Recover the amino acids of this structure.
């Protein structure tokens, strides 16, 4: 039997997926790629199959799968191609698999995350929307399956790196946590001109290179709202013990303020390979390929208060966490629809917040305490339908 860890990467053609394979390629003695997945990028998935020789590759449609099968056969590659969301769940729960990198964007990644959690995998979570939608149910699946949940979001990895391995000590030692936010590309733009922002301007992040959806979320600061919700579940903290500060240099990735007022911070260059390498090797440390900080090149580390007028979406996080279960799923669904409509040129930048706030107002969730994954996915569908109606109204104006 091979001593190497068998790894599945869900969303291997995205920004996080590609960075994960970059780290993995540096450690062929430790990791073997068991499965890869993409929605539709056959060319890149083929190149990844050529390099990493996975047992399985999953695509979203039969047409894309057929294209990949043909190309693999031409090159004599043995990867088996599977199709659809159920195949992702089976792959994530496959008995031979040790670790699953969840790097799909959006609630679409939730079922496969739940499958990996129930199967007791080492679950590397980049897909924050899955936890924002899944909430308590997600954490119950992690506990019931005996899974190890490792945060990949840089802020949550930072907090995790500042805490001892023994989770039972966390609540006792943490007074609060401070998530840092870069403030995105419009931090200094007059907020009454934000309505005119284009998708190209919104996805041009000053410090990080990321997928389009999270880049827009960073510009609206909805990304930080999702991260506040994510932190609530990952670290079992009441909403008031989660704070956000703008730190434009993105050098401090987040901080833990302890009961005794001591502050622990994790620093580094803004490169996702660092949290990815930590998630892969925890509790060990391995080479990530990221550059280390050059302190003499740093001018200053500065901090600002986020302003409600500039990023109203951020402030929805705490309200949604205090509202009935399922509210954060409604917020996430509205936001996914609104961001997609903005990127498609259907609505303006500031309309994203209007859609999110109005969907929350008009769809108070009615989930019982024993709600299931199917209930959450149904709520997600209803919220998307409602948000879609508002988007059509806004577009017609
Ligand atoms: P991306 O858009 O670059 O990649 C998304 C991946 O998911 C692609 O491989 C795509 O094929 C796949 N995918 C998309 N929709 C799918 C669907 N419906 N079914 C199956 N596969 C689908 O996104 P990204 O920037 O890599 O982000 C991935 C996740 O990681 C997001 O949840 C994001 O918030 C989180 N994250 C990203 C970064 C970053 O630096 N990029 C940092 C922190 C957290
Ligand atoms: Mg982050």
């Amino acid at each position: 039997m091979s001593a190497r860890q068998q790894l599945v990467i869900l969303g291997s053609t995205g920004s996080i997926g590609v960075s994960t394979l970059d780290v993995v390629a540096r450690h062929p003695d430790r990791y073997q790629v068991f499965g890869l997945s993409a929605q539709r990028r056959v060319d890149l998935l083929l190149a990844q199959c050529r390099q990493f020789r996975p047992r399985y590759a999953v695509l979203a449609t039969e047409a894309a799968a057929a294209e990949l099968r043909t190309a693999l056969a031409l090159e004599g590659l043995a990867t088996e191609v599977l199709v659809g969301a159920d195949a992702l769940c089976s792959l994530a729960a496959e008995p031979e698999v040790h670790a699953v990198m969840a790097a799909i964007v959006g609630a679409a990644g939730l079922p496969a995350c739940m499958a990996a959690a129930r199967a007791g995998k080492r679950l590397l979570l980049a897909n924050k929307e899955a936890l924002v939608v899944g909430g308590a149910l997600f954490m119950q699946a992690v506990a019931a399956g005996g899974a190890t949940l490792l945060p990949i979001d840089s802020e949550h990895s930072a907090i995790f790196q500042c805490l001892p391995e023994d989770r039972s000590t966390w609540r006792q030692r943490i007074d609060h946590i401070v998530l840092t936010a870069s403030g995105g590309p419009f931090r200094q733009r007059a907020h009454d001109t934000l309505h005119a922002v284009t998708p190209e301007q919104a996805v041009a992040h000053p410090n990080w290179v990321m997928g389009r959806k999270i880049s827009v979320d960073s510009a609206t600061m909805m990304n930080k709202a999702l991260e506040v919700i994510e932190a609530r579940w990952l670290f079992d903290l009441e909403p008031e013990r989660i704070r956000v500060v703008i730190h434009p240099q993105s050098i401090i990735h987040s901080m833990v303020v302890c009961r005794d007022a001591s502050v622990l911070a994790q620093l580094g260059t803004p490169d996702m390979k660092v949290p990815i390498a930590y998630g892969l090797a925890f509790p060990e440390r391995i080479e990530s390929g990221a550059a280390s900080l050059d302190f003499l090149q740093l001018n200053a580390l500065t901090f600002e208060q986020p302003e409600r007028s500039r990023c109203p979406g951020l402030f929805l996080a705490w309200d949604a966490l205090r509202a009935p279960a399922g509210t954060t799923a409604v917020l996430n669904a509205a936001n996914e629809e609104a961001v997609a409509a903005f990127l498609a040129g259907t609505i303006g930048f500031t309309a994203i917040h209007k859609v999110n706030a109005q969907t929350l107002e008009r769809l108070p969730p009615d989930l019982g305490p024993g709600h299931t994954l199917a209930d959450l996915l149904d709520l997600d569908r209803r919220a998307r339908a409602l948000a879609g109606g508002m988007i059509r109204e806004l577009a017609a104006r």
Summary: The CA atoms of residues 109 and 232 lie 19 Å apart.
